[in-house]
Design a protein that fits this description.
740 residues, alpha/beta, 8-stranded parallel sheet, 6-stranded mixed sheet, 27 strands, binds alpha-D-glucopyranose
Length: 740
Amino acid sequence: MEQEKLIQLLADMTLEEKAGQLLQVAGSYFEDEGFVTGPENKAGFTAEELKLAGSLLGSAGAKKLMDIQKKYMEQHPHHIPLLFMADIINGCRTVFPIPLAQGCTFDPALSERLAQAAAAEAAACGIHLTFSPMADLVQDARWGRVMESTGEDVFLNRQFVRAMVEGYQGKADEEGRVDLSGKGKIAACVKHFAAYGAPVAGRDYNAVELSERTLLDDYLPAYREAVDAKAAVVMTSFNTLDRVPSSGNRKLLQEILRAKMGFEGVVISDWGAIREMLSHGIAQSEREAAKLALEAGVDIDMMTTCYCRNLVCLVRDGEIEESLLDRAVLRVLELKNALGLFEDPFKDADESKERELFLCEEHRALARSSAAESFVLLKNEGMLPLHRKGQRVAFIGPQVENRSIFGAWSILGRQEDTVSIADALKKEGLDVIFARGSLFTEDERLMAVSGETRQDRARSGKMLEEAVLAAGGADAVVLALGEHRMYSGEAASRAQITVPSCQLELLRRVCEVNPNVAVVLFTGRPLDIREISDRAKAVLVVWQPGTEGGSAVVDVLYGRENPSGKLAMSFPWCTGQVPISYHEFSTGRPYEEGMQDRYLSRYLDIPNRPLYPFGFGLSYTSFEISDVALSSDVLRRGRNAAIYAGVRVKNTGKIPGSEVVQLYIQDLCASVARPKRELKGFIRVPLMPGEERNVEFAIDESMLRFTGIDMKFASEDGRFAVFVGSSSETMNRAEFELMS
Ligand code: GLC
């Protein structure tokens, strides 16, 4: 529809109809299978409000959504189509690895392909927009939603956020335009703006307390990347930032998002977030909350009655300008128009296409290969890969037969579609034995989450003895342990990020009877795995791998796939060490392991370094990286646009593999303290046995910019250290000087 017709449509709408366009309700108000992903709205909605609502969330299904759309449009005074939104976070019906696992691939192009496949399935089942990517930087594994991020590094997150936006929407053209109406495309909504990933004490929804410089340099760039990639929508976060809730934060939404980042699309609140300003204590009524949010710049009110029950009176009472309401409504109409919904309200909804794409061979193959690429091999003392012949392996643990191995945000994932480890092994006809060995947990609180009961617990002793017997009779043991899928995700913070004690007991007993133990760890977050790391000969982190997770585990365990994942988030020594990140500061009293001085920045009881650092991951082969060489030790502003840091990488092992070569830079002295190192580049290098290759990183002045003492974003002359290696702990170092 032409813009002037949109303007005319807006002009023809009553205040009630305008306010209705800004209401988003759960699909469960329109059908009985809608996914409810937040607290129920006790107020409910009147039939009149539902009649005018502008969008739904959490419903899927071509036929269902076409029926809803048809009925809704027939009764709407202007026959404006509904927008259908949903959390398509890591796949749709075919479930891919959780975003944190995708971050461990260091392969944004892969995530773009996953987002394309997810978009094709979602579009076919009638969804127009996904609440993805989540661009929140995370450093605290107590927070359950680290599983939904791509980790602790701002540079890495930016690459993945852009890849996902472009995977869902397609790439912008030279004029920065994206065709959201294109077949198989869905609009992207970047979230949660802003800095939701840094809640105090790692407790979900808690306050976020950041310096402005940390917010600007570390937490905002990934959202900006999504905006630059033309994400259609931005979602406000639940948290306060500088004690102001994001949905009422004019500085955040007007000055930063609209003015500085240039975002022109729709801003949607997170579920109930506008009304939650009463709980935050900055509004005393829904009317006040509605005024705060609209003036701050929130366009759509997700799942509260604040907007639909107050905006009309606020305008009529002269407390807000109708133009403010019009601006928000026009953005929503423009989004619907950009999706082509006025011409085709059903867009890509197509039952036969849905059947064709859901769980199709191509998407299953993508789920399997991406899962294998996301696994991180943390330890391997000659135990993996296993041998197909002549090795009797006992597969033990609560994850062996578990099909619920898709992340907490896999709203369309189904156990019946998912391949467990046991399913995959049975398909291969391998000489293996199975034993459950333990529950997920025997902790009362966690049992409630994983649905285990006291009756289950009564059987745990027998389970354990059966497992020990199986382990004693095998050549090798694979222990499939870790978190139930719902131990992470939203409202799933854990104060003790440990492996449940009953699983550790299983580990101890099995290791007593068999020295050859490999642990396969399913988890939505880094955990304290000291005991696993001490006792097992091999540790493979598989995260929550999705529909083909069991197949991918067997592919890697038996060497069909060679692991190449690198940690996108540090595994801490213990809970007390979090929040932790490689991206840390020297302090005035830097401590290195082994120093004896007392007055240093250290712990008395544990080391400063994590158990496994960001960027770390092993392979079944080995690689050599030569000393880093710089094309020049001077980088002049403006003149030679860049200098180059080069290494030679060689596969010194006997099987093909991929190494992720990483570039880190440290600003050695500046007007403010700078991190000890920052990731500035990475390259995945596939190499055949014996093959070697030159790898080169261009370093230019723009990579050295930060928010200085004057709060200006710029680089400063001086010396820099360059590190190139296979993890954030590499000491392969060189120096250069930036000069004017
Ligand atoms: C939830 C989440 C958000 C999600 C939204 C819709 O509360 O915070 O990430 O997209 O509600 O389900």
